[in-house]
TrEMBL record:
<dbReference type="Pfam" id="PF09004">
    <property type="entry name" value="ALKBH8_N"/>
</dbReference>
<feature type="domain" description="Reverse transcriptase">
    <location>
        <begin position="1"/>
        <end position="206"/>
    </location>
</feature>
<dbReference type="GO" id="GO:0008168">
    <property type="term" value="F:methyltransferase activity"/>
</dbReference>
<dbReference type="Pfam" id="PF00078">
    <property type="entry name" value="RVT_1"/>
</dbReference>
<dbReference type="InterPro" id="IPR043502">
    <property type="entry name" value="DNA/RNA_pol_sf"/>
</dbReference>
<keyword id="KW-0695">RNA-directed DNA polymerase</keyword>
<keyword id="KW-0808">Transferase</keyword>
<dbReference type="InterPro" id="IPR000477">
    <property type="entry name" value="RT_dom"/>
</dbReference>
<dbReference type="GO" id="GO:0003964">
    <property type="term" value="F:RNA-directed DNA polymerase activity"/>
</dbReference>
<keyword id="KW-0548">Nucleotidyltransferase</keyword>
<dbReference type="GO" id="GO:0016706">
    <property type="term" value="F:2-oxoglutarate-dependent dioxygenase activity"/>
</dbReference>
<protein>
    <submittedName>
        <fullName>RNA-directed DNA polymerase from transposon BS</fullName>
    </submittedName>
</protein>
<dbReference type="InterPro" id="IPR015095">
    <property type="entry name" value="AlkB_hom8_N"/>
</dbReference>
Length: 354
């Protein structure tokens, strides 16, 4: 069945890709004074999809009627049981939501929420499956657009049977003004959301000062936990090739979202990360790629994918000079911007070309 779902998944992507929200995450204005970021939590997001409403939305995205009917039939009248030890409950018929571990669930939810977008230029609604983030860029203290979009999101979710969890919803204010007063808290679903100093977004910890010490400490802790298993492999005299293969799991932790935070990390934090790699080298008994090399290769690869994707909203930031030999450098006024992904990637690409 999952093989057939993958065929339907490929078919849906081919049809709906041109209609999907482009997610303009790189917006930048001149008079922005601070930003408010609202990380929204859905309660059992995939379980709230209404098949009939989903079919209507798919039809609006030019999905063939036969495919719409198949998806509706696939989601309707499903039998479900609960097993606890040797005990099994009676089967119940369910016609809401998408099955757990279903291949189609992430895309179906993305299509289900595709019409939920922001209407103000200063507010962006970023969606990654059921992870939704509202970013308001506040100019001259005017928060009306941001607050309107937050209310609109609540209304849209209510109309589409999506339940928001205000207790797990987090807001963070990024404000670098010297004499700034804390903005008035936002009310979301009847609850007041107190601003947090940091939050975890797609596995990466983002702090309101845009520094990465908390995120790097979290990565090092996870990597060191797996280093214990690597040392156990050494004790059992396993071949070096197997230990190197196991180390790839540790490397994937150390390089999680590395293209975002590495350039802005402090020398101290980079040294902490590199010490984990040196410890692994001593255990395995061979040289391993340095963190700088891993960052460079991944940044160049990600930048290459962006350049090759005409629909990517950040593609226009990689502008080639008339000579065709270099990219136009991105002008920056702060070190925070200079050490962010696009200026850093542009610099690395120019070095690679020369």
């Amino acid at each position: 069945m999952k093989s057939f779902e993958r065929l339907v998944l490929s078919h849906l992507k081919d049809i709906t890709d041109p209609f999907l929200d482009p997610l303009q995450f790189a917006y930048r204005a001149n008079r922005i004074t601070y930003a408010r970021i609202l990380c929204v939590d859905f309660s059992s997001a995939f379980n709230t999809i209404i098949p009939a409403l989903l079919q209507e939305k798919l039809s609006q995205l030019s999905v063939p009627d036969s495919t719409c009917r198949w998806i509706t039939d696939f989601l309707s009248d499903r039998k479900q049981r609960v097993k606890l030890g040797k005990h099994v409950s009676d089967s119940q018929s369910i016609s809401t939501g998408s099955p757990q571990s279903c291949v189609l669930s992430p895309l179906l939810f993305s299509l289900y929420t595709n019409s939920c977008t922001s209407s103000h230029q200063s507010v962006k609604l970023l969606k990654f499956a059921d992870d939704t983030t509202l970013i308001g860029l506040i100019s001259d203290g005017d928060e009306s657009a941001y607050r309107w979009e937050a209310d609109h999101l609540v209304t849209w979710c209510h109309r589409n049977n999506l339940e928001l969890n205000a207790l797990k919803t987090v807001e963070m204010v990024v404000d670098f003004r010297k004499n700034s007063a804390p903005p008035a808290p936002i009310t979301f679903c009847g609850s007041t959301i107190d601003p947090a100093e940091s939050f975890r977004f797609l596995g990466t910890i983002i702090s309101q000062d845009l520094k990465w010490e908390l995120n790097i400490s979290s990565l090092i802790k996870k990597a060191q936990q797996r280093m214990c298993f690597l040392r156990q492999l050494k004790k059992f005299n396993l071949p070096r090739t197997i230990m190197v293969h196991f180390y790839s799991a540790i490397e994937s932790i150390l390089t999680s979202s590395i293209t975002i935070w590495y350039s802005a990390a402090t020398a101290k934090d980079k040294g902490r990360l590199q010490r984990v790699i040196r410890s692994a080298e001593k255990v395995i008994g061979c040289n391993l790629p340095s963190l700088q090399d891993l960052y460079t290769s991944r940044t160049l690869r990600r930048a290459g994918k962006i350049v090759a994707d005409p629909s990517h909203p950040g593609r226009k930031l990689f502008e080639t000079l008339p000579s065709g030999r270099r990219l136009r450098s991105i002008r920056t006024k702060t070190s925070r911007h200079k050490n962010s992904f696009f200026p850093s990637a542009t610099s690395l690409i120019n070095k690679a070309w020369t």
